[in-house]
Amino acid sequence: TRVPPTNPEGMPVVPPQDLASRPRRNRRSQTVRKAFQETILTPDNFIYPIFVHDEGDENIPIGSMPGQDRLSFKTGMIKKVAEARAAGVNQVVVFPKTPDRLKTPCGKEAFNPQGLAQRSISLLKDTFPDLEVYTDVALDPYNTLGHDGMVRSDGVILNDETVYYLCQQAVSQARAGADVISPSDMMDGRVGAIRQALDDEGFTHVSIMSYTAKYNSAYYGPFREALDSAPPPGSEGWKIPKDKAEYQMDPANVRECLRESALDEAEGADIMMVKPAGAYLDIIKMLKDNTTLPISAYQVSGEYSMLKAAAAAGYLNERAAVLESLMAIKRAGADLTLTYYAIDAARWLQDS
Ligand code: PBG
C-alpha cells in the first residue's frame, strides 16, 4: 500500500472530482504513451525527391530550398542516394534539370532515351538494384513554355496530343528501369493511356503512382526555381497561360477529387497521390476513406521552404515541427510521403 504523495506547500487541498473517465491516465508515462500511439513514422514510408543536373561535377544549391541541391549526375546523385539508404530511405523520385538548349516548344527531350532522366534512372538501378525508383511524367521541365502539356500558339493546352507524348515519356522511363511511373501533368485520360502503353511494351510489372488530386498551388514556387520550369510570359505571337489552373485542381474544391480518383482507379493506377500535403489533410482523409488503393502525399517544395525559413529564423524547433508535420500527413491517411526532409527525418527517428 503506497501512500499518495502530499501536495506541495501552499496548494489548496480539494476533494477529488467525481470522474469515472480521466483521459490523462492513458498519457501518464512515456511507456504508456508509446503503447497507445496510433500513428508511427518510419522511413519505410518516405520517398526522397532528388533534383539532378548534368552541367559539371559540383552540386548546385537551390536558393529557396536551403539544404537541397541540384545533384551532379553520377557523383553527387549516387553519394546522396547512398546517404539516404544509410538512413533507411530506399525510395526516390528523380527530377532532371533540363538545360535551356535542350528545351523545345513540345518538350521532346522528355522521351530522349539518352535524356538525363533516363540516364539517372539507369544509373540508380545499376548501382542500387533494390532501390525503388519513381519518375515524374509531365512536360514542364522539358519545354520552353513551362506547362505540363503542349501549348498551341493560341494558348490552348492540348490534352490528347500531350497524352500521346506522355506515353512515350513513360515507356522511355520504364525502358531505363523505372519501378514506378508518376504522371503529375493532370491531363485527362493519361493514366489509362500510360497503362496501356506500358503493357503493350511488356512493362506489366511497372507501377503507376498517379498525381490524382494535384492542386493549382502556390507552394510549388521553389520547385519551379529548382528546375527553372515556371511558365514564361507570352512571346511573339505565342499565348501562354500564366498559370496551371486549366488542368490542376482548384484549391477550393473537394468533390472533384473523388471524380479524379474514380477515373484513376478505373484506369489502373496503383497508388493515388494528394499534393500538396500539409494544407490538404482533409483531401488525404477523404481519399483514404473512398478507396482501397494506397495513398501518397507530397510535402512539396514550398512546405519545405516554409519550415526551413522558420527554423533558420529561430521561430520553430525544426526537428519537432518537421516530425509533427510528417506525423499529421500520415495520421490523415497517407501511406507514403514524398518529402525533401526524408533523410533528416529518418535520422531523427533513428536517434529518438
Ligand atoms: C511537374 C511537377 C511539379 C511538382 C512536381 N512535379 C511542378 C508543377 O506542377 O508546377 C512540384 C513539386 C514541389 O513543389 O515540390 N509537373
Automatic annotation (TrEMBL):
GO BP terms: chlorophyll biosynthetic process; protoporphyrinogen IX biosynthetic process
Keyword terms of this UniProt record: Chlorophyll biosynthesis, Heme biosynthesis, Lyase, Porphyrin biosynthesis
Top-level taxon: Eukaryota
SUPFAM superfamilies: Aldolase
Function: Catalyzes an early step in the biosynthesis of tetrapyrroles. Binds two molecules of 5-aminolevulinate per subunit, each at a distinct site, and catalyzes their condensation to form porphobilinogen.
Subunit structure comment from the entry: Homooctamer.
Protein name according to UniProt: Delta-aminolevulinic acid dehydratase
Organism per entry: Bathycoccus prasinos
